[in-house]
Amino acid sequence: MAVEVQIYAFIGGYIRTLKEKLIQITDKREMGRTHTIPVPFYVIRHGSSLVAFDTGMNARCATDAEAHLGKEILSVPIVPEMKPEEAFEEQIKSRLGIEPKDLNGLILSHGHLDHAGGVHMLADTEVPIFVQRPELKVIEEGQIGYMPGDYGDLKRLHFVPVDGVLDLFGDGTVVAFPMPGHTPGLQSVMVKTEGHRCYVLTSDALDSIEQLEGKIMPWVAWDESKVLQGFHTLDLLKCMGAEIVPHHDPFYWKNRPLAPNPFK
């Protein structure tokens, strides 16, 4: 009997920035325009198991963003627009009735502040945090955009380094795979739900549908050639019938069902 697989999506607030701080644009008319983007994260149910994919922004971004992020980040500008109840730990409890310690795992796409904000909630638990090995190295180095407060004491977290593709349950329904480019160890997740519907949760391998159609580079790109390879991978998966879920696209997320309703 096939295991039931469902995706639950959450919007953990928004980030106000400029379009040129998201993607590389050449049209000067687009320069300086404020752009507000959603910050999604997910919980994937596989039978009785629950696995999160990313954790959104830290709860302190709702109460004291300057103290948590620092003036340098805010001046980019990267300005959180977030309510306390939109934090990872608050939403999974209010919408699904679970706490971080109840998870069977966390797949961390990469370590940036709008993806790893709730990782510290897993301190002193047995919850494995699956992260690509090159990304874990950058997290440990604490580069810009990787906020120490999102993690706390790294030794109190149960990181599981991943080298390449990770078939989490061994049945092909939840598969994390490397998509480096934006960062050295970015990973996306492919999820097959009921009826063999296939979704690719891209994280920052793809911010918007516009970006994929135009093969537009992100503003932050560790390796642009690998970003382009990632675009081609997404094109291929799309041709094979997968739905590509762009991470920060406000138009895509406008009418999408959020938890406690299953994503579809």
Question: Which consecutive residue ranges, at least 5 long each, have pLDDT under 50?
Answer: none
**Relative strand content:** 25-35%
Mean pLDDT: 96
For the record, what is the CATH homologous superfamily label? Answer: Ribonuclease Z/Hydroxyacylglutathione hydrolase-like
Per CATH, which architecture?
Answer: 4-Layer Sandwich
Shape summary: globular
End-to-end distance? 22 Å
Alpha-beta content class? alpha/beta
How many strands in all?
12
What's this entry about, in short?
With 264 residues, the chain is α/β, with parallel strands linked by helices.
Structure description:
The protein is α/β, with parallel strands linked by helices and 264 residues long. The chain has a single domain (5-253), classed as Ribonuclease Z/Hydroxyacylglutathione hydrolase-like (Metallo-beta-lactamase, Chain A), CATH 3.60.15. 22% of the residues lie in helices and 26% in strands. The protein is built from 8 helices and 12 strands. The protein has helices at residues 60-63, 65-69, 71-74, 88-96, 133-141, 209-214, 224-239, 250-253, and strands at 5-18, 34-46, 49-53, 79-81, 105-107, 128-132, 158-162, 166-167, 174-178, 187-192, 198-201, 243-245. The strands form 2 sheets. The protein has a 7-stranded mixed sheet. β10 (187-192) and β11 (198-201) form a beta hairpin. The longest helix is centred in the last third of the chain and has 16 residues, at 224-239. The two termini are 22 Å apart. The model has no long low-confidence stretch (mean pLDDT 96).
